[in-house]
Write a structure and sequence with these properties.
The protein is an alpha/beta fold. The protein has helices at about 5-30, 45-60, 80-85, 95-100, 120-125, 130-140, 185-190, 200-205, 215-220, 250, 255-290, 300-305, 320-330, and strands at about 30-35, 65-70, 90-95, 145-160, 175, 190-195, 210-215, 230-245, 295. Strands 1, 2, 3, 4, 5, 6, 7, 8 and 9 form a 9-stranded mixed beta sheet that branches. The N and C termini lie far apart (about 95 Å). One of its GO terms (biological process) is transmembrane transport.
Length: about 325
């Protein structure tokens, strides 16, 4: 027979453990773990500043949110992580304007070839009312929230033979990301754009599946494309950027206070990304030449001339008003 005092003690221990369990469960429920997905290498600034953002969000929300960063296509290709925002399987991504433009056409304007005159024109757009209006339109269309533009760099063509004029690109098999706007430049120059997933490009170049690819200098280094291509042609055909986007399912769960924290953190990270990429672009020409890679200066006006007629052509996913407003920025 159990002694009453033992029974009381047993009940007390059981109640204490139950209360502790409830407390632990409450703590776990209060702390939300977010997933930040991107397709870039861990050696690139984008990953470094994504991890910094994760630390800052945990600190500034006093542990209400933690965030794990998944780099190098580990949660899927760029199309996949864009879909993941809608599904709620990822919470934050970096994505190109061209990919965002598949869901809301005007967003793609910042990813078109020779759309910007130079970096200063791009920066003025990133800070403009026009970008804010387009971002709001994207949010209305998708529910997802663009927070900031991160400078990605000027995209250049790498090849095994120098490219000096559009005629040199005739029938060139050039890898491009799998979004229609990336095809505007090569098609205008007479090349054959070939979409290949980012993590498969090195092998495709090495095996001769394609003759060329195009990316900014920091990405060419990070992905070691210079190991399998002899020449970097400084076409600068796209002044490219990545958008930091928070998925609608997650955004809708955030308090106004936490939304402001997310904005501040991701915008600060974007400024830091931009500064690092600008610095890298200034240093990398000499670095590539030291590696034995030919860096070929080209007359960009020749390439711009064949592309500009397409800015309001069949490939355009924006209207003439937005186009004219963008061209007027900084003038």
């Amino acid at each position: 027979m159990t002694h009453p005092r033992q029974l009381t003690l047993t009940r007390w221990v059981s109640m204490t453990l139950l209360a502790s369990g409830i407390g632990i469960a409450g703590m776990v429920q209060a702390q939300e773990n977010l997933r930040f997905a991107h397709v870039y290498e861990t050696s690139e600034p984008f990953h470094k500043w994504a991890e910094w953002a994760a630390e800052q969000i945990e600190e500034r929300t006093e542990g209400r949110y933690t965030m794990q960063v998944h780099p190098a296509s580990s949660l899927g290709k760029e199309e996949d992580i864009n879909e993941g925002l809608q599904l709620g399987t990822v919470d934050v991504i970096y994505t190109g304007n061209q990919f965002a433009g598949r869901s809301y056409g005007p967003m793609g304007i910042a990813g078109a070839a020779y759309m910007f005159r130079d970096f200063d024109h791009w920066q003025a757009y990133a800070d403009s009312d026009l970008f804010q209006e387009i971002a709001e339109g994207y949010q209305d269309a998708t529910g997802n929230v663009p927070i900031a533009l991160n400078y990605y760099g000027e995209r250049h063509v790498t090849s095994n033979e120098p490219i000096n004029t559009p005629a040199d690109m005739e029938n060139l098999r050039i890898r491009v990301p799998n979004a229609p706007l990336y095809m505007m430049f090569p098609r205008a120059a007479g090349a054959n754009p070939t979409p290949i997933a980012f993590d498969e490009v090195y092998l495709a170049l090495q095996q001769g599946v394609v003759d060329a690819q195009e990316n900014p200098l920091p990405t060419i280094r990070a992905k070691a494309f210079h190991e399998v291509q002899d020449t970097i042609n400084l076409t600068g055909h796209i002044t490219d950027s990545l958008i930091t986007i928070v998925g609608g399912p997650r955004w809708n769960q955030l308090s106004e206070e936490d939304r402001e924290i997310f904005r501040e953190v991701f915008q600060e990270a974007a400024r830091n990304n931009t500064e690092e990429i600008v610095q890298a672009e200034q240093e990398l020409v000499a670095w590539f030449e030291e590696q034995g890679t030919t860096v070929n200066e080209v007359d960009r006006a020749l390439f711009r001339e064949v592309v500009e007629p397409h800015h309001l052509g069949d490939a355009a996913t924006w209207d003439e008003d937005n186009y004219e407003r963008l061209q007027a920025i900084g003038q």
